[in-house]
User: Which sequence fits this backbone?
Protein backbone atom coordinates (compact mmCIF):
# COMPACT_ATOMS: atom_id res chain seq x y z
CA UNK A 1 0.00 0.00 0.00
CA UNK A 2 1.23 3.44 -0.89
CA UNK A 3 2.07 5.36 2.30
CA UNK A 4 -0.89 7.31 3.64
CA UNK A 5 0.99 10.60 3.59
CA UNK A 6 1.56 10.23 -0.14
CA UNK A 7 -2.13 9.44 -0.73
CA UNK A 8 -3.13 12.36 1.50
CA UNK A 9 -0.99 14.71 -0.60
CA UNK A 10 -3.24 13.95 -3.56
CA UNK A 11 -6.45 14.70 -1.67
CA UNK A 12 -7.44 11.20 -0.50
CA UNK A 13 -8.91 12.57 2.70
CA UNK A 14 -11.02 15.24 1.07
CA UNK A 15 -14.50 13.86 1.81
CA UNK A 16 -16.02 16.34 -0.63
CA UNK A 17 -14.82 14.64 -3.79
CA UNK A 18 -17.82 13.32 -5.78
CA UNK A 19 -18.68 9.63 -5.94
CA UNK A 20 -19.50 10.06 -9.63
CA UNK A 21 -22.79 8.23 -9.87
CA UNK A 22 -23.34 10.67 -12.74
CA UNK A 23 -21.29 13.11 -14.80
CA UNK A 24 -21.79 15.97 -14.38
CA UNK A 25 -22.76 15.36 -10.75
CA UNK A 26 -26.23 16.44 -9.64
CA UNK A 27 -24.83 19.56 -7.93
CA UNK A 28 -24.07 20.91 -11.41
CA UNK A 29 -27.58 20.40 -12.78
CA UNK A 30 -29.40 23.55 -13.88
CA UNK A 31 -33.04 24.57 -14.00
CA UNK A 32 -32.90 24.80 -17.78
CA UNK A 33 -34.07 21.18 -18.16
CA UNK A 34 -37.88 21.17 -18.21
CA UNK A 35 -40.70 18.63 -18.67
CA UNK A 36 -40.69 19.27 -22.45
CA UNK A 37 -37.04 18.08 -22.63
CA UNK A 38 -37.90 14.99 -20.60
CA UNK A 39 -40.87 14.24 -22.89
CA UNK A 40 -38.78 14.77 -26.03
CA UNK A 41 -36.01 12.48 -24.73
CA UNK A 42 -38.55 9.74 -23.99
CA UNK A 43 -40.17 10.07 -27.40
CA UNK A 44 -36.72 9.82 -29.02
CA UNK A 45 -35.92 6.39 -27.51
CA UNK A 46 -35.33 4.19 -30.59
CA UNK A 47 -37.69 1.21 -30.93
CA UNK A 48 -35.93 -1.98 -29.89
CA UNK A 49 -34.07 -0.23 -27.04
CA UNK A 50 -33.80 -1.62 -23.53
CA UNK A 51 -34.77 0.78 -20.76
CA UNK A 52 -34.60 0.58 -16.97
CA UNK A 53 -36.93 2.10 -14.40
CA UNK A 54 -36.31 3.44 -10.89
CA UNK A 55 -39.11 4.32 -8.45
CA UNK A 56 -38.33 6.43 -5.40
CA UNK A 57 -40.36 5.95 -2.21
CA UNK A 58 -39.46 8.93 0.00
CA UNK A 59 -40.98 7.68 3.27
CA UNK A 60 -39.66 5.91 6.37
CA UNK A 61 -41.30 4.89 9.63
CA UNK A 62 -38.18 5.92 11.54
CA UNK A 63 -35.51 8.36 10.46
CA UNK A 64 -32.02 6.99 11.09
CA UNK A 65 -29.65 9.75 12.16
CA UNK A 66 -26.83 8.79 9.79
CA UNK A 67 -29.01 8.74 6.68
CA UNK A 68 -28.43 11.28 3.91
CA UNK A 69 -31.11 9.89 1.58
CA UNK A 70 -34.05 11.99 0.37
CA UNK A 71 -36.82 10.76 2.67
CA UNK A 72 -39.36 11.88 5.26
CA UNK A 73 -40.88 10.22 8.32
CA UNK A 74 -44.52 9.16 8.44
CA UNK A 75 -46.45 6.95 10.82
CA UNK A 76 -49.66 7.05 8.82
CA UNK A 77 -50.45 5.28 5.55
CA UNK A 78 -52.49 8.10 4.00
CA UNK A 79 -49.55 10.08 2.53
CA UNK A 80 -48.00 6.86 1.23
CA UNK A 81 -51.24 5.86 -0.54
CA UNK A 82 -51.60 9.34 -2.04
CA UNK A 83 -47.98 9.17 -3.21
CA UNK A 84 -48.43 5.77 -4.89
CA UNK A 85 -51.51 7.15 -6.68
CA UNK A 86 -49.28 9.92 -8.01
CA UNK A 87 -46.64 7.40 -9.09
CA UNK A 88 -49.36 5.53 -10.99
CA UNK A 89 -50.40 8.78 -12.68
CA UNK A 90 -46.75 9.45 -13.62
CA UNK A 91 -46.50 5.93 -15.06
CA UNK A 92 -49.65 6.62 -17.15
CA UNK A 93 -48.00 9.79 -18.53
CA UNK A 94 -44.89 7.78 -19.31
CA UNK A 95 -46.90 5.09 -21.05
CA UNK A 96 -48.44 7.73 -23.34
CA UNK A 97 -45.02 9.12 -24.30
CA UNK A 98 -43.01 5.88 -24.54
CA UNK A 99 -42.40 4.64 -28.10
CA UNK A 100 -43.55 1.15 -29.09
CA UNK A 101 -41.02 -1.65 -29.13
CA UNK A 102 -38.91 -0.87 -26.06
CA UNK A 103 -38.21 -3.57 -23.47
CA UNK A 104 -37.63 -3.42 -19.72
CA UNK A 105 -34.18 -4.40 -18.51
CA UNK A 106 -34.30 -3.47 -14.80
CA UNK A 107 -36.81 -2.19 -12.29
CA UNK A 108 -35.45 -0.91 -8.99
CA UNK A 109 -37.35 0.47 -5.98
CA UNK A 110 -35.37 2.61 -3.59
CA UNK A 111 -35.89 5.28 -1.03
CA UNK A 112 -36.56 5.93 1.66
CA UNK A 113 -38.12 2.62 2.49
CA UNK A 114 -40.04 0.91 -0.33
CA UNK A 115 -40.79 -1.97 2.06
CA UNK A 116 -43.22 0.21 4.01
CA UNK A 117 -45.67 -0.09 1.09
CA UNK A 118 -48.68 -2.18 2.07
CA UNK A 119 -49.09 -5.42 0.05
CA UNK A 120 -51.84 -3.99 -2.20
CA UNK A 121 -49.63 -0.99 -3.03
CA UNK A 122 -46.70 -3.28 -3.85
CA UNK A 123 -48.92 -5.20 -6.26
CA UNK A 124 -50.43 -2.12 -7.94
CA UNK A 125 -47.14 -0.32 -8.39
CA UNK A 126 -45.29 -3.39 -9.70
CA UNK A 127 -48.10 -4.28 -12.12
CA UNK A 128 -48.20 -0.75 -13.50
CA UNK A 129 -44.44 -0.67 -14.04
CA UNK A 130 -44.29 -4.13 -15.67
CA UNK A 131 -47.24 -3.16 -17.91
CA UNK A 132 -45.17 -0.35 -19.47
CA UNK A 133 -43.27 -2.70 -21.79
CA UNK A 134 -42.31 -6.36 -22.17
CA UNK A 135 -39.26 -7.46 -20.19
CA UNK A 136 -35.99 -8.77 -21.59
CA UNK A 137 -34.98 -12.40 -20.88
CA UNK A 138 -32.53 -11.26 -18.20
CA UNK A 139 -34.80 -8.66 -16.60
CA UNK A 140 -34.31 -7.97 -12.89
CA UNK A 141 -36.61 -6.44 -10.30
CA UNK A 142 -34.73 -5.33 -7.19
CA UNK A 143 -35.96 -3.67 -4.00
CA UNK A 144 -34.18 -1.97 -1.08
CA UNK A 145 -35.25 -3.78 2.08
CA UNK A 146 -35.17 -2.37 5.60
CA UNK A 147 -35.16 -5.49 7.83
CA UNK A 148 -36.99 -3.53 10.55
CA UNK A 149 -39.80 -2.57 8.20
CA UNK A 150 -40.98 -5.74 6.48
CA UNK A 151 -43.27 -8.63 7.33
CA UNK A 152 -44.52 -11.87 5.79
CA UNK A 153 -47.39 -10.25 3.88
CA UNK A 154 -45.13 -7.64 2.28
CA UNK A 155 -42.41 -10.20 1.50
CA UNK A 156 -45.04 -12.42 -0.16
CA UNK A 157 -46.40 -9.48 -2.17
CA UNK A 158 -42.91 -8.50 -3.36
CA UNK A 159 -42.06 -12.07 -4.35
CA UNK A 160 -45.40 -12.49 -6.13
CA UNK A 161 -44.80 -9.19 -7.96
CA UNK A 162 -41.61 -10.64 -9.43
CA UNK A 163 -38.84 -9.32 -7.15
CA UNK A 164 -35.74 -11.38 -7.92
CA UNK A 165 -33.05 -9.26 -6.22
CA UNK A 166 -33.00 -7.60 -2.85
CA UNK A 167 -30.71 -5.08 -1.22
CA UNK A 168 -30.69 -5.14 2.58
CA UNK A 169 -29.64 -2.16 4.69
CA UNK A 170 -27.31 -3.33 7.48
CA UNK A 171 -24.81 -0.46 8.13
CA UNK A 172 -23.09 -2.12 11.15
CA UNK A 173 -23.96 -4.86 13.64
CA UNK A 174 -22.28 -3.30 16.70
CA UNK A 175 -24.95 -2.21 19.24
CA UNK A 176 -22.98 0.87 20.42
CA UNK A 177 -22.42 2.06 16.87
CA UNK A 178 -26.07 1.39 16.06
CA UNK A 179 -27.12 3.58 19.02
CA UNK A 180 -24.73 6.35 17.94
CA UNK A 181 -26.13 6.44 14.40
CA UNK A 182 -29.77 6.12 15.47
CA UNK A 183 -30.41 2.79 13.78
CA UNK A 184 -30.91 -0.17 16.03
CA UNK A 185 -31.24 -3.49 14.24
CA UNK A 186 -30.44 -6.80 15.92
CA UNK A 187 -28.37 -9.30 13.95
CA UNK A 188 -31.17 -11.85 14.36
CA UNK A 189 -33.61 -9.49 12.59
CA UNK A 190 -31.31 -9.16 9.57
CA UNK A 191 -30.60 -12.89 9.58
CA UNK A 192 -34.33 -13.73 9.63
CA UNK A 193 -35.00 -11.47 6.63
CA UNK A 194 -32.15 -13.06 4.71
CA UNK A 195 -33.67 -16.50 5.34
CA UNK A 196 -37.19 -15.29 4.51
CA UNK A 197 -35.96 -13.88 1.20
CA UNK A 198 -34.07 -17.05 0.32
CA UNK A 199 -37.13 -19.14 1.25
CA UNK A 200 -39.03 -17.15 -1.38
CA UNK A 201 -36.49 -17.98 -4.05
CA UNK A 202 -34.58 -14.69 -4.01
CA UNK A 203 -31.13 -15.94 -4.92
CA UNK A 204 -29.41 -12.63 -5.25
CA UNK A 205 -28.92 -10.61 -2.08
CA UNK A 206 -26.96 -7.40 -1.67
CA UNK A 207 -26.17 -5.88 1.72
CA UNK A 208 -25.11 -2.29 2.48
CA UNK A 209 -22.57 -1.70 5.22
CA UNK A 210 -20.68 1.45 6.17
CA UNK A 211 -17.14 2.32 7.21
CA UNK A 212 -16.20 5.57 8.93
CA UNK A 213 -19.00 5.40 11.51
CA UNK A 214 -18.72 6.90 15.01
CA UNK A 215 -16.85 4.63 17.48
CA UNK A 216 -15.94 2.22 14.66
CA UNK A 217 -12.55 0.55 15.11
CA UNK A 218 -10.74 -2.12 13.07
CA UNK A 219 -11.76 -4.69 15.71
CA UNK A 220 -15.42 -3.65 15.58
CA UNK A 221 -15.60 -3.60 11.79
CA UNK A 222 -13.92 -7.03 11.72
CA UNK A 223 -16.67 -8.39 13.96
CA UNK A 224 -19.39 -6.82 11.84
CA UNK A 225 -17.94 -8.07 8.57
CA UNK A 226 -17.56 -11.59 10.00
CA UNK A 227 -21.21 -11.57 11.05
CA UNK A 228 -22.15 -10.35 7.61
CA UNK A 229 -20.07 -13.06 5.93
CA UNK A 230 -21.95 -15.68 7.96
CA UNK A 231 -25.04 -14.64 5.96
CA UNK A 232 -23.17 -15.19 2.68
CA UNK A 233 -24.49 -12.16 0.79
CA UNK A 234 -24.00 -12.36 -2.97
CA UNK A 235 -22.96 -8.72 -3.08
CA UNK A 236 -21.79 -6.18 -0.54
CA UNK A 237 -21.70 -2.41 -0.86
CA UNK A 238 -19.10 -1.04 1.58
CA UNK A 239 -19.88 2.67 1.53
CA UNK A 240 -17.88 5.35 3.28
CA UNK A 241 -20.16 7.12 5.76
CA UNK A 242 -20.75 10.64 4.39
CA UNK A 243 -21.08 13.04 7.31
CA UNK A 244 -22.80 16.04 5.76
CA UNK A 245 -24.88 17.61 8.58
CA UNK A 246 -25.31 20.83 6.58
CA UNK A 247 -27.32 18.78 4.05
CA UNK A 248 -28.82 16.07 6.29
CA UNK A 249 -29.64 17.91 9.49
CA UNK A 250 -30.47 14.76 11.47
CA UNK A 251 -26.75 13.92 11.35
CA UNK A 252 -26.23 16.68 13.95
CA UNK A 253 -27.34 14.04 16.46
CA UNK A 254 -24.12 12.13 15.72
CA UNK A 255 -21.19 13.20 17.91
CA UNK A 256 -18.49 14.69 15.66
CA UNK A 257 -15.74 13.75 18.07
CA UNK A 258 -16.65 10.06 17.81
CA UNK A 259 -16.01 10.01 14.06
CA UNK A 260 -12.79 8.35 12.90
CA UNK A 261 -10.09 10.55 11.38
CA UNK A 262 -9.68 10.35 7.59
CA UNK A 263 -6.58 8.14 8.06
CA UNK A 264 -8.56 5.84 10.40
CA UNK A 265 -11.30 5.63 7.75
CA UNK A 266 -8.79 4.27 5.28
CA UNK A 267 -7.72 1.63 7.85
CA UNK A 268 -11.36 0.66 8.40
CA UNK A 269 -11.93 0.28 4.67
CA UNK A 270 -8.74 -1.75 4.23
CA UNK A 271 -9.63 -4.01 7.18
CA UNK A 272 -13.07 -4.79 5.74
CA UNK A 273 -11.70 -5.11 2.23
CA UNK A 274 -9.11 -7.70 3.29
CA UNK A 275 -11.80 -9.78 4.98
CA UNK A 276 -13.92 -9.87 1.83
CA UNK A 277 -10.90 -10.74 -0.28
CA UNK A 278 -9.92 -13.57 2.10
CA UNK A 279 -13.44 -14.89 1.72
CA UNK A 280 -12.88 -14.93 -2.03
CA UNK A 281 -15.20 -12.06 -2.93
CA UNK A 282 -14.27 -10.22 -6.12
CA UNK A 283 -13.58 -6.53 -5.69
CA UNK A 284 -15.90 -4.39 -7.80
CA UNK A 285 -14.97 -0.78 -8.44
CA UNK A 286 -14.23 1.42 -5.45
CA UNK A 287 -16.64 0.04 -2.86
CA UNK A 288 -18.42 -3.19 -3.88
CA UNK A 289 -17.66 -6.88 -3.45
CA UNK A 290 -19.38 -9.82 -5.13
CA UNK A 291 -19.25 -13.59 -5.07
CA UNK A 292 -17.20 -14.97 -7.93
CA UNK A 293 -19.73 -15.91 -10.60
CA UNK A 294 -22.23 -13.22 -9.55
CA UNK A 295 -23.37 -11.07 -12.49
CA UNK A 296 -21.53 -8.02 -11.15
CA UNK A 297 -18.26 -9.95 -10.75
CA UNK A 298 -18.58 -11.39 -14.26
CA UNK A 299 -19.36 -7.96 -15.72
CA UNK A 300 -16.36 -6.43 -13.92
CA UNK A 301 -14.05 -9.14 -15.27
CA UNK A 302 -15.41 -8.60 -18.80
CA UNK A 303 -15.30 -4.80 -18.49
CA UNK A 304 -19.06 -4.52 -18.85
CA UNK A 305 -19.59 -2.75 -15.55
CA UNK A 306 -21.54 0.52 -15.50
CA UNK A 307 -22.20 3.15 -12.90
CA UNK A 308 -25.56 4.80 -12.28
CA UNK A 309 -27.42 6.48 -9.44
CA UNK A 310 -27.79 3.15 -7.63
CA UNK A 311 -24.03 2.51 -7.80
CA UNK A 312 -22.44 -0.28 -9.83
CA UNK A 313 -24.56 -2.28 -12.25
CA UNK A 314 -24.21 -4.79 -15.06
CA UNK A 315 -27.25 -3.22 -16.73
CA UNK A 316 -26.39 -2.12 -20.27
CA UNK A 317 -29.59 -0.12 -20.91
CA UNK A 318 -28.72 3.40 -22.06
CA UNK A 319 -31.94 4.90 -20.70
CA UNK A 320 -32.85 4.93 -17.01
CA UNK A 321 -36.16 6.57 -16.16
CA UNK A 322 -36.60 7.77 -12.57
CA UNK A 323 -40.13 7.99 -11.17
CA UNK A 324 -41.16 9.80 -8.01
CA UNK A 325 -39.99 12.78 -6.00
CA UNK A 326 -36.30 13.70 -6.58
CA UNK A 327 -35.77 10.79 -9.01
CA UNK A 328 -33.18 11.34 -11.76
CA UNK A 329 -33.46 9.98 -15.30
CA UNK A 330 -30.56 9.43 -17.64
CA UNK A 331 -30.79 9.55 -21.45
CA UNK A 332 -28.10 9.66 -24.14
CA UNK A 333 -29.04 13.37 -24.39
CA UNK A 334 -28.65 14.24 -20.68
CA UNK A 335 -30.19 14.03 -17.21
CA UNK A 336 -33.62 15.12 -15.93
CA UNK A 337 -34.53 15.32 -12.24
CA UNK A 338 -38.00 15.46 -10.72
CA UNK A 339 -38.97 18.00 -8.06
CA UNK A 340 -37.46 16.94 -4.72
CA UNK A 341 -40.35 17.96 -2.48
CA UNK A 342 -43.14 15.39 -2.35
CA UNK A 343 -45.80 18.13 -2.48
CA UNK A 344 -44.20 19.90 -5.46
CA UNK A 345 -43.78 16.58 -7.29
CA UNK A 346 -47.42 15.59 -6.65
CA UNK A 347 -48.69 19.00 -7.72
CA UNK A 348 -46.92 18.78 -11.08
CA UNK A 349 -48.13 15.25 -11.85
CA UNK A 350 -51.70 15.99 -10.74
CA UNK A 351 -51.69 18.98 -13.09
CA UNK A 352 -51.15 16.48 -15.91
CA UNK A 353 -47.47 17.06 -16.73
CA UNK A 354 -44.12 15.55 -15.81
CA UNK A 355 -42.36 16.89 -12.70
CA UNK A 356 -38.92 17.69 -14.18
CA UNK A 357 -37.40 20.76 -12.51
CA UNK A 358 -33.68 20.46 -13.22
CA UNK A 359 -31.14 18.44 -15.12
CA UNK A 360 -28.39 18.68 -17.65
CA UNK A 361 -28.42 18.72 -21.43
CA UNK A 362 -25.18 17.10 -22.68
CA UNK A 363 -23.10 19.65 -24.61
CA UNK A 364 -19.57 19.77 -25.98
CA UNK A 365 -17.58 16.79 -24.82
CA UNK A 366 -19.84 15.98 -21.82
CA UNK A 367 -20.87 12.54 -23.09
CA UNK A 368 -17.27 11.56 -23.76
CA UNK A 369 -16.08 12.77 -20.34
CA UNK A 370 -19.02 10.97 -18.71
CA UNK A 371 -17.84 7.71 -20.30
CA UNK A 372 -14.20 8.40 -19.33
CA UNK A 373 -15.16 8.94 -15.71
CA UNK A 374 -17.41 5.86 -15.76
CA UNK A 375 -14.46 3.76 -17.05
CA UNK A 376 -12.23 5.10 -14.28
CA UNK A 377 -14.81 4.37 -11.57
CA UNK A 378 -15.57 0.88 -12.99
CA UNK A 379 -12.32 -0.38 -14.56
CA UNK A 380 -9.62 1.85 -13.00
CA UNK A 381 -8.55 2.43 -16.59
CA UNK A 382 -9.59 4.41 -19.67
CA UNK A 383 -9.64 2.78 -23.07
CA UNK A 384 -8.89 5.76 -25.31
CA UNK A 385 -9.53 3.76 -28.48
CA UNK A 386 -13.16 3.20 -27.47
CA UNK A 387 -13.54 6.96 -26.97
CA UNK A 388 -12.07 7.69 -30.40
CA UNK A 389 -14.37 5.13 -32.01
CA UNK A 390 -17.59 6.09 -30.22
CA UNK A 391 -17.19 9.85 -29.86
CA UNK A 392 -15.15 10.51 -33.02
CA UNK A 393 -12.56 12.58 -31.16
CA UNK A 394 -8.97 12.89 -32.38
CA UNK A 395 -6.40 10.71 -30.57
CA UNK A 396 -4.42 13.84 -29.72
CA UNK A 397 -7.34 15.19 -27.69
CA UNK A 398 -7.50 12.02 -25.58
CA UNK A 399 -3.72 12.00 -25.08
CA UNK A 400 -3.83 15.65 -23.95
CA UNK A 401 -6.49 14.83 -21.33
CA UNK A 402 -4.46 11.83 -20.11
CA UNK A 403 -1.30 13.95 -19.88
CA UNK A 404 -3.04 16.68 -17.90
CA UNK A 405 -4.23 14.08 -15.37
CA UNK A 406 -0.78 12.52 -15.24
CA UNK A 407 0.77 15.89 -14.49
CA UNK A 408 -1.58 16.24 -11.54
CA UNK A 409 -0.97 12.74 -10.16
CA UNK A 410 2.64 12.15 -11.21
CA UNK A 411 3.78 8.57 -10.94
CA UNK A 412 0.54 7.46 -9.31
CA UNK A 413 -1.05 6.79 -12.74
CA UNK A 414 0.20 4.93 -15.81
CA UNK A 415 -0.12 6.26 -19.32
CA UNK A 416 0.54 4.28 -22.50
CA UNK A 417 0.32 6.75 -25.39
CA UNK A 418 0.83 4.05 -28.03
CA UNK A 419 -2.11 1.97 -26.80
CA UNK A 420 -4.02 5.16 -25.93
CA UNK A 421 -4.68 3.86 -22.43
CA UNK A 422 -4.65 5.36 -18.96
CA UNK A 423 -4.51 3.16 -15.86
CA UNK A 424 -4.69 3.48 -12.08
CA UNK A 425 -2.43 0.80 -10.57
CA UNK A 426 -3.75 -1.07 -7.48
CA UNK A 427 -1.66 0.97 -4.99
CA UNK A 428 -3.25 4.21 -6.16
CA UNK A 429 -6.86 2.98 -6.16
CA UNK A 430 -7.79 4.84 -2.96
CA UNK A 431 -7.33 7.94 -5.16
CA UNK A 432 -9.79 6.82 -7.82
CA UNK A 433 -12.42 9.53 -7.19
CA UNK A 434 -9.71 12.20 -7.08
CA UNK A 435 -8.28 10.98 -10.38
CA UNK A 436 -11.77 10.87 -11.94
CA UNK A 437 -12.18 14.50 -10.91
CA UNK A 438 -9.17 15.41 -13.04
CA UNK A 439 -11.42 14.69 -16.08
CA UNK A 440 -14.38 16.68 -14.69
CA UNK A 441 -14.64 20.05 -16.36
CA UNK A 442 -17.41 21.25 -14.03
CA UNK A 443 -15.60 20.77 -10.72
CA UNK A 444 -13.78 23.82 -9.41
CA UNK A 445 -10.09 23.44 -8.43
CA UNK A 446 -9.30 21.64 -5.17
CA UNK A 447 -10.65 23.30 -2.06
CA UNK A 448 -14.01 24.50 -3.28
CA UNK A 449 -15.88 21.29 -4.06
CA UNK A 450 -19.37 20.47 -3.07
CA UNK A 451 -20.46 17.03 -1.91
CA UNK A 452 -22.12 15.08 -4.68
CA UNK A 453 -23.59 11.65 -4.40
C1 LIG B 1 -32.19 4.35 1.03
S1 LIG B 1 -31.07 3.66 2.06
C2 LIG B 1 -31.62 2.09 2.61
C3 LIG B 1 -32.90 1.50 2.37
C4 LIG B 1 -33.71 1.12 3.57
N1 LIG B 1 -34.52 2.25 3.94
C5 LIG B 1 -32.91 0.73 4.79
O1 LIG B 1 -32.81 1.53 5.69
O2 LIG B 1 -32.42 -0.39 4.84
C6 LIG B 1 -29.81 3.07 1.00
C7 LIG B 1 -28.41 3.04 1.59
O3 LIG B 1 -27.81 4.30 1.52
C8 LIG B 1 -26.69 4.29 2.39
N2 LIG B 1 -26.56 5.58 3.07
C9 LIG B 1 -27.53 6.32 3.62
N3 LIG B 1 -26.99 7.42 4.21
C10 LIG B 1 -25.66 7.36 4.01
C11 LIG B 1 -24.56 8.20 4.39
N4 LIG B 1 -24.74 9.30 5.10
N5 LIG B 1 -23.32 7.83 3.99
C12 LIG B 1 -23.14 6.71 3.26
N6 LIG B 1 -24.12 5.88 2.91
C13 LIG B 1 -25.37 6.20 3.27
C14 LIG B 1 -26.95 3.20 3.43
O4 LIG B 1 -25.94 2.20 3.37
C15 LIG B 1 -28.30 2.67 3.05
O5 LIG B 1 -28.42 1.29 3.27
S1 LIG C 1 -31.47 4.33 6.32
FE1 LIG C 1 -33.36 3.65 5.37
S2 LIG C 1 -34.85 3.63 7.07
FE2 LIG C 1 -33.13 4.82 7.77
S3 LIG C 1 -33.74 6.93 7.27
FE3 LIG C 1 -32.48 6.17 5.57
S4 LIG C 1 -33.91 5.42 4.11
FE4 LIG C 1 -35.02 5.61 6.07
Assistant:
Amino acid sequence: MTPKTQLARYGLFDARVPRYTSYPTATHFSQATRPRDFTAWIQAIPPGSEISLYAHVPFCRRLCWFCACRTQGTQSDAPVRAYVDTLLAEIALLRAALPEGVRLSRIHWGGGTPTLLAPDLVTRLAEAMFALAPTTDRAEFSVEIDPNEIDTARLDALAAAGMNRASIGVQDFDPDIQKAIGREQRFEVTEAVVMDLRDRGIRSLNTDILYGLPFQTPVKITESVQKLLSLQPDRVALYGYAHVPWMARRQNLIPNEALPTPEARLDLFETARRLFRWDNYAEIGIDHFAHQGDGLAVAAAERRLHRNFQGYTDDSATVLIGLGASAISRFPQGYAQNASGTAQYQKAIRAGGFATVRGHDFAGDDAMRARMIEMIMCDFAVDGRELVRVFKVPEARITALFRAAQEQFGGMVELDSGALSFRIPPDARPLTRMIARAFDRYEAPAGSHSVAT
Summary: The CA atoms of residues 336 and 359 lie 4 Å apart. The chain is about 35% helix and 20% strand. The mean pLDDT is 94. The two ends are 27 Å apart (CA to CA).
